[in-house]
Structure formats: C-alpha cells, structure tokens
Amino acid sequence: MVKAVIGDETQLKLFEDRLTRSVVPSQVGLVIGKLSSKLDRGFVYDLVPTPPNDAGEAPCSIIDGAGESNKNKKKTSVKAKSEPESSALFIDKDWVSEHARQVSRMLLGGMKVVGIYIWVNESLFKNSTIAICQTVKGVAEAASLMIDWSEALLIHIGYSPLRWTCRNCSLAANITSSSLRPCDFKMGKVLGSLQTFRCTYNFDLRLPISHDDKLDIKRFSDVLRSEITVHAKELSGAKALINGKLVTEDEQCASDDFHEVEFLVPFLQDKYLAFDQIGVLGVLLFRGFVCSLAYLNSKEPVSQALLDIKEDIIRSLQSRLEIMCDEAERYIESVAEIGQETSSDIPSDQPVPHFDLQAQRKQCSLSFPRRVFVPWLEGTYICDYIQSSETMEVLKDHCTELMSIEVPTDTSEILEPESEASAVITTTTKSFWDIAIDNSLASSPVNSVSKNGKIGNGKPAKSVTFKPTLSILVLIIAVIVGLVFYVTGR
Q1: How would residue 28 be classed by pLDDT, with cut points 50, 70 and 90?
Q2: Quick one: a GO biological-process term for this protein (predicted)?
C-alpha cells in the first residue's frame, strides 16, 4: 500500500492558483500519476478537471438540507459565506467514471488515472465521504483496463484555510468511510526526473475462423478482444533489449534520458488446435505495429519500464478496438433514432455493424485507428487515436475537452510515427464499420474466404483455390501419357 505521495510542484501550484482565482464552490476531477508498489510511493503529475456533462451541468454541486443545488442559488464568493452543516456534495459518479475511461486511453506507459481530487471545504467533505469514496471506486473500475486495482488516491484541496490532504482509498467490495487512510503528501520535482522509453512493436497474428455452431465467440470485436488477451500473455514473457543490450529485471536505469526498447517474443508451438480444411471458413489476419512510449522514475528498476511498455502496447490495441465498438454503438443508436422518426424510409434488412465472422464470405481489409502523440508537460506526451475519416480538428477537441490542454498550432510538434503505414486496401474511403457492413452483405464460395483485420502496413491475406491448377496438371499428364502410348504403339 502506498504510504507517501509526491506531487509535481510546478504543475500543482499552477493548478492551485487557478482554483483560488475561480469562484466555484466545488470541483471534481482526475488525478494523473503513478502508484509504485515496489517503492510504496505514489507520484502525481497533474490534476484534470472533469468537464460538464452533455446537458452542460457541472459534475458536482452542493446540495443543502432541502435538496436544493447551489447552481440554483445566487452565485457568491466561496470564501464569503460558509455552507450550512446539513449541506452535502452531489457527484455525478457515472460521468466522472466515463471521463476517467476516456482519459485512460490518452495516457502512455507509466501514466494512469490513479484517483480523483475534490475542491470543497472541510465540512462538506466530511458530510459527503461515502459519495466521494463511491466515485473513487467507480473511477478505478473505469480506468483499469488490464489490472484490478486494490487502492486509489483521493486528494482533498480545502479552502479557508487552503490545505492539501491526500488519502489512500482501499477498493474493497463494500467501500465505507473507514476505507480512507491518510498518507504523507508533499510537492517536489517529479516530471523533470522521468526517463523515456520507446518501442516500435511489430506483430503478425492469424486466427482460423472455424465452422462451429457451438462457438460462443463469433463477432469480429469479440474474436479480436480474445486474441489481444491471449497475445498479452505471450508478450508478458518476452525478453527485452534496451539500447541494443539484453537487460536483467533488477537493473537500475542508466543516466540517459531516452532509451530504445526491443522485445524478443518466443516462438510458440501448438498455439492453435489442428483444423481440417472443411472446418475452417477463413483466417483473420491481424498484423501491423504499435509505437509505444513509457515514462519511468529514476528510482524505479528497468523491469518496471518494461512492464509499463508491455501494458501500453496491449492497452493501445484494446483502446483502438473500444473506439471502433463505440462508433458501432453510435451507429446503432442513430439508426434506431432515424427508424423511430421515419421508419418507412429504413429498409427492414438494415445491417448491424457487429457482423458475424462465420457468416462472412468475402475478403476485406479493415484498419485500426492510428496513434498520434501530443506534447503534454515538461517534454512528456499523451496520445490520441485518429480514424481514417477524421482530421486533426477531432484531436484538438479531445485534448481540450478531456485533458484541458490546447494542442500546439505548429503541427510539427505533434508526432505521427504510425502515419507511414500504407492505406487500407479497399476501393472506398468509408469508415471501418461502413466497410464491415458492405462486406458482410456480400457472399462468395466457402473455399475462397479470407478475413483480414489490419493495423499499420499489413497486406491482406489472399484467398487461394487449387481447382484450376489441378485441372491443368491433370490435362498435361493425360497428354503426355497419350503421346507415350502413341509412340510405343507404332
């Protein structure tokens, strides 16, 4: 359990100044940092306020004894009037958790959403402990894609007087006020001491799609999600080269600020069960590369950087798949809304984006969103994902809304290491789900089926049929045999 927390003094003092100059009586947001179990210490890089919800309402507000929200009252200075003892804090924990889920996609290795912060006076904090703890737990569940957390941070910034307090929240099944334990908190140099590790990870995976009526996993997204999970276990056992040298896990970091990492993934035998030709409908080809960055504190061992990079690679693949699934859900909702308004104009056989791979009969090549890196704090980066149909304006909107930062006007500062990948091999510029829908409607003979899931510069798997070749070979043999009999007969 983390016993001490160090926050980056430069960033937190800037954030404190913005809060004290504001007139908001309460605010909630995310804590971006890292919890190191090996050091029993936590690091806080920055605090990110949760934006208003879709209705324009703040994610937290003060409710008095009669249940009236402070947003309906006349606005006054937070220091000019104290809140009544019966007042409590209302937090839209679902919205804060959704914010944490989306921000987690933008963070690189060694950086996570490690908790929440609350800007409110001491009496309101005490009256709202349960609601705050439930929000912490919801954020932890939303932000943890791969690892189940056992603890998270709660930073309370109180006013009158201004004071920072950090608590460790144990994420038990039944969370109560006793789940909070105080931990030491101080400010110092954190971001400036980070070291950067970069890895360009190539992969080439093939999944046979079997003809099995009892198979539970059928949809494209389900098959890929399962394969990414399997590949995560394979990657966890990979050895690593740092700056061209094989390293041991207990090594300390070198003095250099930047390090190149390569992974040596072992060959696996008998990974898939044998399939006969009749039982296989096609192959899902999943290939490409992921550019990964991770940040390590100078006191942590190299093994932690390798774990962070491996987690970042898998988390990046999962995030891209989630983005496509989110797009599919929006598509379904839009079709449903249009169907309610003008049902007569919508065909009854409108396809669903989550197409069934067992029903797929045409070769297709599908592209994951590409990763771009945006400058963040003191030489560090965050990332976002751009689909082929999107522009950089989407990137700017995401960074402003989710991270409260402005994207540099100079586009040369935005890194696009995955932009050199070849374009999707298709005759259309439609989005991922449009391509999936078009291909799911087409059909062809079973023996020429080939599916392709693509990231980066991979080429689609080609369907092959041996019937024409075999016929020509038989014809040639027949001609030769005929000539032999003709010559010997003479």
Answers
A1: very high
A2: intracellular protein localization
d(CA 47, CA 33): 9
230 & 329 share domain: yes
Q: Mean pLDDT, to the nearest integer, of 25-35? A: 96
The pTM of this model reads 0.77
What pLDDT score does 59 carry? 96
Question: Domain check: are 385 and 440 in the same one?
Answer: yes
DSSP secondary structure letters along 145-209: SSS--SEEEEEEEETTTTEEEEEEEE--SS--GGGEEE-EEEEE--GGGEEEEEEEEEEEEEEEE
Running DSSP on this structure, what letter comes out for residue 89? E
C-beta of residue 454 within 8 angstroms of C-beta of residue 460: yes
Query: CA geometry: angle at 123 spanning 120 and 129, to 5°?
Result: 75
Q: Using CA atoms, how far apart are residues 478 and 122, in angstroms rounded to an integer? A: 95
Using the structure block, give the residue that is written with the tokens 């989110």.
326
Task: Verify that 142 and 223 share a domain, yes or no.
Answer: no
Judged against a pLDDT cut of 90, whether residue 435 lies above it is answered with no
Q: Tell me: do 298 and 428 sit in the same domain.
A: yes
Helix, strand or coil for residue 445? coil
H/E stretch holding 365: strand 364-367
How confident is the model over 349-359, as a mean pLDDT? 46
Tell me if 76 sits within 8 A of 54, measured CB to CB: no
Q: Which of 189, 216, 247 is the last residue of a domain?
A: 189
- Do 123 and 164 belong to one domain? yes
Query: What is residue 458's predicted lDDT score, i.e. its pLDDT?
Result: 37
Q: Closest by alpha carbon to 108, among 315, 293, 372?
A: 293
Q: Output the six-digit token pair for 263.
A: 């992974």
- Rounded CA-CA distance 268/205 in Å is 12
